[in-house]
Automatic annotation (TrEMBL):
Organism field: Peribacillus muralis
Any coiled-coil regions, as ranges: none
Gene that this sequence comes from: mtnX
Gene3D superfamilies the UniProt entry points to: 3.90.1470.20, HAD superfamily/HAD-like
Organism taxonomic ancestry: Bacteria, Bacillati, Bacillota, Bacilli, Bacillales
Protein name, as recorded: 2-hydroxy-3-keto-5-methylthiopentenyl-1-phosphate phosphatase
An example Gene Ontology CC term for this record: cytoplasm
Record pathway: Amino-acid biosynthesis; L-methionine biosynthesis via salvage pathway; L-methionine from S-methyl-5-thio-alpha-D-ribose 1-phosphate: step 4/6
């Protein structure tokens, strides 16, 4: 079986969650209730995140991009990890509930086009609004926004060995479908409590080591 890798962005490739950082900095206090409702699963991810962004004026675009560029730190080893997957011939897809306008500036020079799946933010009305080009397929009714399980069904073949790399509850549906999970933070706790096959990581050097070890054992 050949490996295929699905990797989250916020809190996984970057050290922190960019949507949370943006809201803390720019949104009026109402955003916190929306965030709590999403985390308690009272509202779907897509409606919660959509409403959060609708609290922000489109005029803020340049300022928000500048803020994310300064604030977001890529986790150590990520560039080497991307290079490693290219050389090993392992397809790598970024699957993110984040938005194109803050992901593209951080990843465009590193990853080939067509390998990043995320949501699109638009700034042509008074308030920011979100478009969801990778919404749930007919097998998912979570209203994920960017539906990671749907993308996995779309991109992986029957004899692919699926790795999921992530950090949070928003990766859990994908993790349940994975053959092996590489996890940190809340997703790591979830993998332990649900008994999913996994290893923990902090940097992408760890991720590379895990892949090397596993793939050498298999071959
Ligand atoms: Mg995340
Ligand atoms: Zn879904």
């Amino acid at each position: 079986m050949k490996p295929i890798i699905f990797c989250d962005f916020d809190g996984t490739i970057t050290n922190t969650d960019n949507i949370i950082s943006i809201m803390k900095k720019f949104a009026p206090p109402e955003w916190e209730r929306l965030k709590d409702d999403v985390l308690r699963q009272k509202i779907s991810i897509s409606s919660g995140v959509g409403e959060m962004f609708s609290l922000l004026d489109s005029d803020l675009k340049a300022e928000i991009i500048q803020f994310v560029k300064e604030k977001a730190h890529i986790r150590p080893g990520f560039h080497d990890f991307v290079e490693y997957t290219k050389q090993a011939g392992f397809p790598l897809y970024i699957v993110s509930g984040g938005m194109d306008f803050f992901i593209a500036p951080l990843l465009n020079d590193i990853l080939p086009t067509g390998t990043v799946f995320c949501n699109n933010a638009h700034f042509d009305k008074k308030k920011i609004y979100i478009e969801w080009p990778h919404a749930c397929d007919e097998q998912c009714n979570n209203e994920c926004g960017c539906c990671k399980p749907s993308i996995m069904r779309q991109m992986a073949g029957a004899d692919d060995f699926m790795y999921v790399i992530g950090d949070s509850v928003t990766d859990f549906e994908a993790a349940k479908r994975a053959d092996f999970v590489i996890a940190r933070d809340i997703l790591l706790e979830k993998c332990i409590s649900e008994g999913l096959p996994h290893r923990g990581f902090e940097t992408f050097y760890d991720v590379m080591e895990i892949l090397k070890q596993r793939e050498e054992v298999k071959s």
